[in-house]
Amino acid sequence: MKAEEHYNAVRESLEVIEESVQIGIEQRQRTIGFHCSAAAVDMLELFLHKQNSINPGKIVKHDFFSSEKKAHRMLPEKFRDREIIIPILVQLETKRNQLCYGKIKPTKDIEDYLAVFHKVRSFFDSRGLTYEE
Questions:
Q1: Residue 97 to residues 11, 48, 62, 67, 114: CA-CA distances in angstroms?
Q2: What is the rounded distance in angstroms from the CA atom of residue 50 to the CA atom of residue 30?
Q3: How would you classify residue 67: left for phi > 0, otherwise alpha for psi between -120 and 50, otherwise beta?
Q4: Is the pLDDT of residue 15 over 70?
Q5: Domain segments of the chain: what residues?
Q6: What pLDDT, in 10s, does the model give residues 52-64?
């Protein structure tokens, strides 16, 4: 995917997450699960592209983060802060399917998931990633 498409996808996901919070996270559990995961992966791809750590045609999928072992195997061996971001993305992904496909979760679980997503976003924001070209 081209950088422009990642920027658009991140912005869309951030808008949908914000709308879901305004509507009520209890009513948008699945939407939050899908869009937090998708935005995090798009942010990672933008981050890796900016470092020239992956080829433009490389696709990073959310299921790469079903375990740390798989993430380490599927991602480039070397990129800035690899050991910091992988565990956070794995933490996000392990709860994704519960939100997307499981029964309705308590509000606290959804808030905790959003907190992990905000940790992902803060990580990328602090490293200079922006969501505009």
A1: 22, 25, 11, 13, 14
A2: 30
A3: beta
A4: yes
A5: 3-126
A6: 898 878 889 999 9
Structure tokens at 121: 């976003």
Answer whether residue 132 shows pLDDT above 90. no
Residue 81's SS3 state is coil
Q: Which of 30, 11, 33, 29 is nearest to 130 (CA)?
A: 11
**Distances from the Cα of 114 to the Cαs of 20, 34, 49, 51, 79, in angstroms?**
11, 12, 25, 27, 25
CA–CA separation, 120 and 54 (whole Å): 19
Given a cut of 70, whether residue 133 has pLDDT beyond it is no
Higher pLDDT, 130 or 93: 93
The Cα-based distances of 123 to 15, 86, 111, 118, 129 in angstroms read 19, 11, 18, 8, 9
pTM above threshold 0.85: yes
pLDDT of residue 57: 82
